[in-house]
Specification:
The complex is a heterodimer of chains A (137) and B (377). Chain A has 137 residues and is α+β, with helices and mostly antiparallel strands. Chain A is built from 4 helices and 3 strands; from the N terminus they run ααβββαα. In chain B, a hairpin with a 4-residue loop joins β3 (229-244) and β4 (249-266). The chains are: A alpha+beta (137), B alpha+beta (377). The interface between A and B is large, with 49 and 82 residues. Chain B: This is Alpha-D-ribose 1-methylphosphonate 5-triphosphate synthase subunit PhnI.
Chain lengths: 137, 377
């Protein structure tokens, strides 16, 4: 579910388009755009305070067969929320699950992992390697 | 007191058309896209998200484009837009301890666990204009200087956790009751004295320039004694986890870029806190480091009252700071002066002319009314 929410919407859409046996579905809720009021903690650990609001899009669907799928994604992304909800429902079906994981979820997951890896390497490259200096007199 | 004036619909319509043309600029040049702004002017987008108090990079980039780069105007656009959206109920809490960092430094401790990680900082640039940026550059592979290959530890403990064990830094006040209402200044009016939570919410969305000036004033003695230290600055992506009610599981739906700053300074009044160091804290949306530092300094200055320090200067004055740090509010009131004040001004003119005549006429100020025949001109 995180993978679907965090993926680039264009990637998700492309992989979904290519997936052959899309289930029939009915949208039960949304997709609707709204706000989440996000909190931080004082000092990172103490009392909570509101930092601000984040846009999200949520959607619930029911696919033929009855399974209900739910999704929430960051940003104003109705299409992504809808696809993610349908996938969430379809993934509950043990027969569809392996194929869906293989053709949609895993490729997206690999892409996310690769992006994280690239970022981590760059961040690590900026770690300071202090050489001990002898204080001059 | 402004008055309503009618007429001017055509002028306004034309003003908007004129504005749109000026916004577009030279039509021989390609129009800048919202995606380009989002990607390539990320720090402008970050500032607009912070002051608009709305985390959405696409909307912020659109606002920057629409406002022709005027970031205060863009923040206003975001604030207005958020009022059109409903709030969903779960209130996720950001745990900055689980940040995927881009940058993490401490000025206080050289060798903290996880080390000093510079990230994509401008701090060491020489501030010379780079004319190579005047030409679009073909996307080339950037080659990094590597002397060792490694990754950072997955968890970087906070400096304050380390100092904690020596009892040197105050433990942030825990919440007494977990569901106790966290104040929301966008729903309830800000009252004084304000809670720390209300202050930090106000400061997070406050104008960077105003807060920077106040922070500077505090450092120069108008609010601090002694020298504050950057305990830690972290900038990176924090997971946003949402609870799905029917399934009672927490799902991460994405990552929010934030900057967090902890400032440490000595408690001035002995006995104000049982330990040596008092914290100032700042947490803002986006890569707004200067802002996060200013917020942490102002937070510290605003704690003077509760720490038993004498409150003498603006940076320590809660009402002064919190009432005036919101640039949408400040801009509104300052700019309202442009609204027609014609009738009032006529009254001013009459008054000013009358006072002028009276002072020209009488030689003896005290008997100016008695000698009113003497308009000696």
């Amino acid at each position: 579910m995180s993978v679907l929410a965090e993926s680039n919407p264009a990637d998700l859409e492309a992989l979904w388009d290519r997936y052959g046996e899309k289930p029939d579905y009915q949208v039960v809720l949304g997709p609707e755009i709204g706000l989440l009021l996000v909190q931080g903690r004082v000092g990172g650990r103490g009392r909570r305070f509101h930092v601000g609001e984040v846009t999200v899009t949520r959607c619930n669907v029911r696919i033929s067969g009855g399974a209900v799928g739910t999704a929430m994604v960051l940003g104003c992304r109705p299409r992504q929320a809808e696809i993610a909800a349908v996938l969430d429902a379809a993934l509950q079906d043990d027969r569809r699950r392996p194929d869906l994981l293989e053709s949609v979820v895993r490729p997206l997951e690999r892409r996310l992992k690769e992006a994280r890896r690239r970022e981590a390497v760059r961040v690590a490259a900026t770690q300071v390697d202090f050489s001990t200096m002898v204080r001059g007199e | 007191m402004y008055v309503a004036a009618k007429g001017g619909e055509k002028a306004i319509g034309n003003a908007h058309r004129f504005l749109a043309e000026r916004r577009r600029g030279d039509i021989r040049l390609p129009e800048v896209s919202v995606e380009q702004i989002r990607e390539q002017l990320g720090l402008a987008v970050d500032r607009v998200m912070a002051e608009g108090s709305l985390y959405d990079r696409d909307l912020a980039a659109l606002a920057v484009k629409q406002a022709q780069g005027d970031l205060v105007e863009a923040a206003f656009l975001l604030r207005a837009y958020r009022t059109t959206l409903p709030r969903f109920s779960p209130c996720p809490v950001l745990d900055t301890g689980r940040m995927r960092p881009l940058r993490r430094i401490s000025a206080a401790y050289k060798d903290l666990p996880g080390g000093q990680v510079l990230g994509p900082t401008y701090d060491y640039s020489h501030r010379l204009l780079d004319f190579s940026l005047m030409e679009a550059q073909a996307a080339a592979n950037v080659v990094y200087l590597v002397d060792k290959v490694g990754t950072l530890p997955s968890r970087m403990p906070r400096l304050t956790e380390i100092l904690d064990s020596d009892g040197l830094v105050e433990t942030p006040e825990p919440e007494r009751d977990d569901e106790a209402a966290v104040p929301d200044i966008t729903r309830e009016p800000l009252e004084f004295p304000a809670s720390r939570s209300a202050r930090l919410q106000a400061l997070a969305r406050g104008d960077e320039g105003f807060l920077l000036g106040l922070a500077y004033s505090a450092q120069r003695g108008f609010g601090f004694q002694g020298h504050p230290f950057v305990g830690e600055i972290r900038m990176g992506y924090v997971p946003l986890e949402v609870e799905f009610p029917d399934e009672s599981l927490k799902v991460r739906i994405g990552w929010i870029l934030v900057t967090e700053c902890v400032m440490l300074s000595r408690a001035v009044e002995a006995g104000a806190c049982e330990c040596g160091f008092v914290q100032g804290y700042g947490l803002v949306f986006g890569a707004n480091e200067r802002k996060a530092m200013a917020v942490a300094l102002v937070d510290r200055a605003l704690r003077s009252r509760e720490l038993g320090e004498e409150v003498r200067y603006p940076a320590q004055d809660e009402e002064y700071v919190l009432r005036h740090c919101d640039n949408v509010e400040s801009s509104g009131f300052v700019q309202h002066l442009k609204l027609p004040h014609y009738v009032d001004f006529q009254a001013e003119l009459v008054h000013v002319r009358r006072v002028g005549k009276e002072s020209e006429g009488g030689i003896d100020e005290g008997s100016s009314l008695a000698g009113s025949g003497q308009e000696g001109r």
